[in-house]
DNA sequence: TTGTATGCGTTATCAC
DNA sequence: GTGATAACGCATACAA
């Protein structure tokens, strides 16, 4: 097994200088027919590929985009990564991936490990403020936050309008005649509050009563765990809205296990419109937050920043849309047997 | 904004040579109290971090592990990535991620882009043979295949025993009294056949009749699409086994839409034990293929290869386990209303 | 225990 | 058009 060919090998084989080969490889210059042919042949024959590390040393570019995900098992983030992956691939960039939940190191160490290997970063807007400050001060590379607004003004971000999304879902429930609503939030994400306030806004002027709960992690297990507290509360809710679909899935399963009929006795809804909401019984009403589109937008935004585009908005808003399914209905309606 | 500190800056600030700083940073040598203190202080004050690109040029190591996933939206692969991510993080390595389904480039180009940026690769065993050959010849870096056995002998791989898994599920169905079984396979994955043969083996010596179908992609939509062909076939199956849980999810949804009662009229089961199988109605019987453990094992195996461990088995087998749930039952049993 | 010198593979600058 | 050469930031053999 021989070592990989270098630019010098090519230069030698083609009887030109390394500088010429470099210019040829990177395009943007004209060459004599002769030289062009020789270089092409040499590259072909030696199987030469330019070493991105060496190039990076000079240009300061790695060809990688860094992406830090809070928990890849959440289908919302999975789709997000998929969208970002597509945009990166189209631009010829690689994706350097880190799962914050899996790293035993604190977020800061994680970013420090990622940073020197990437040209820019896509990170969650629910990063600790101290980490964001560090990024702002030390990362001389563009950063795009996702989820909600960046934790500090002046930073780039991509996400949906969470207040509007909450409002949208709230109106849906209001139209169904629900008046006792419980929200199971995830306080660690700042925009959980936005969803909650949007929800409340939808009931402004009505005699509706809204309650707020909170879970320590936005996962199905927590939804199951908190279900009894929510449903057997002094105020029995007519509708339960969860911060995301995973929580909603857990809530719904446990609600049924507790003997509640969904949606006849209690409507349940979430956010994100994950694929599996279609396959539950009843199927899950949700607000589609454009997971994949958000990932794609985040990557494109970052690429724009890298390209030096100056007309980039600080925040990019992704459209959301209500996806009404069977888990929400006017009380007592339907047969309960699909 | 000042540029990032280099080893020279540190050396200068500490009044030592760059070589000394390098040795200090990379450990494995003793220093005088004095020098140690000065270097530590300088590093601290300048916020120095060694540049992995520059280091990589010398050592030939990037600090990255490459991972090529067929479709990150499949929860099986998501868990796989999670496991690999954990193992990589523990070893202080980053994960360079690529989604083959999202790349418009052919697999080969994808690998070529990844290869120079990583120390080793984790790739699906269902890569085209031509690509594997190329890898074998040109990638002078260790590769670990996942899913099933490597496409060529002599290559490292990690995966479960697919034949045994099929057998396990087959016995379960046999014990439930089923005799007309349909398998919805995914021929593009070579081990789909292993599952099928394991399934068949479970019914050897009985008068059972087994049918085989095939889908072009192992996703829920394909399960829905093929459901009517499978269920309304000349031989109405008592049980349908799908290549994976996504297919099973789609099959089950469509089966119910077609008016079939699951599991009273037809049992349905899959492979992988994805999290969402718990939240369907009925909950989905599956064979847990140890998705996350496989990812972790693949990464560890790769790390072992990188560390030059010589006692590494060529193939590592991950344990599987049957997870019986409500979607499989003896015919006519149960009430159908949980 | 510490320092000197060299080279990793590439691009950029400037000369020809 | 093409070539010489100096960086880029670091690790390592070897010298002291």
TrEMBL record, chains A, B:
InterPro entries: HTH_LacI, LacI/GalR-like_sensor, Lambda_DNA-bd_dom_sf, Peripla_BP_I
Keywords: DNA-binding, Transcription, Transcription regulation
UniProt xrefs under SUPFAM superfamilies: lambda repressor-like DNA-binding domains (SSF47413), Periplasmic binding protein-like I (SSF53822)
Sequence ranges assigned to domain HTH lacI-type in this UniProt record: 5-59
Claim: Thylakoid is one of the keywords in the record: no
UniProt key word Transcription regulation: yes
GO molecular function: DNA-binding transcription factor activity; transcription cis-regulatory region binding
Signal peptide residue numbers: none
Matching Pfam families: LacI, Peripla_BP_3
Cited PANTHER family: LACI-RELATED TRANSCRIPTIONAL REPRESSOR (PTHR30146), TRANSCRIPTIONAL REGULATORY PROTEIN (PTHR30146:SF138)
Protein name stated in the entry: LacI family transcriptional regulator
Taxonomic path: Bacteria, Pseudomonadati, Pseudomonadota, Betaproteobacteria, Burkholderiales
């Amino acid at each position: 097994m021989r070592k990989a060919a270098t630019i010098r090998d090519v230069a030698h084989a083609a009887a030109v200088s390394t500088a010429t080969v470099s210019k040829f490889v990177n395009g943007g210059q004209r060459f004599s027919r002769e030289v062009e042919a020789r270089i092409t042949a040499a590259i072909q024959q030696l199987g030469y590929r330019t070493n991105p590390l060496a190039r990076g040393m000079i240009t300061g570019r790695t060809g990688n985009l860094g992406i830090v995900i809070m928990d890849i098992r959440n289908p919302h983030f999975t789709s997000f990564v998929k969208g970002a992956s597509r945009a990166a691939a189209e631009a010829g960039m690689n994706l350097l991936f880190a799962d914050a939940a899996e790293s035993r190191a604190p977020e800061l160490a994680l970013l420090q490990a990622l940073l020197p290997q990437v040209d820019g970063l896509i990170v969650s807007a629910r990063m600790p403020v101290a980490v964001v400050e560090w990024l702002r001060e030390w990362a001389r590379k563009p950063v795009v936050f996702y989820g909600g607004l960046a934790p500090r003004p002046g930073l780039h971000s991509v996400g949906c309008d969470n207040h509007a999304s909450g409002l949208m879902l709230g109106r849906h429930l209001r139209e169904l005649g629900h008046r006792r609503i419980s929200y199971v939030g995830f306080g660690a994400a700042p925009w959980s509050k936005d969803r909650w306030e949007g929800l409340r806004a939808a009931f402004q002027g009505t005699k509706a009563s809204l309650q707020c709960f909170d879970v320590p992690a936005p996962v199905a297990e927590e939804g199951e765990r908190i279900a009894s507290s929510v449903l057997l509360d002094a105020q029995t809710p007519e509708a339960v809205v969860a911060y995301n679909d995973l929580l909603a899935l857990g809530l719904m399963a446990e609600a049924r296990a507790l003997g509640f009929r969904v949606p006849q006795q209690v409507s349940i809804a979430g956010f994100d419109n994950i694929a599996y909401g279609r396959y539950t019984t009843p199927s899950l009403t949700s607000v589609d937050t454009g997971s994949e589109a958000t990932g794609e937008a985040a990557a494109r935004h970052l690429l724009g920043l890298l390209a030096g585009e100056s007309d980039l908005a600080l925040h990019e808003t992704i459209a959301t849309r209500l996806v009404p399914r069977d888990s929400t209905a006017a009380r007592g309606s339907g047969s309960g047997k699909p």
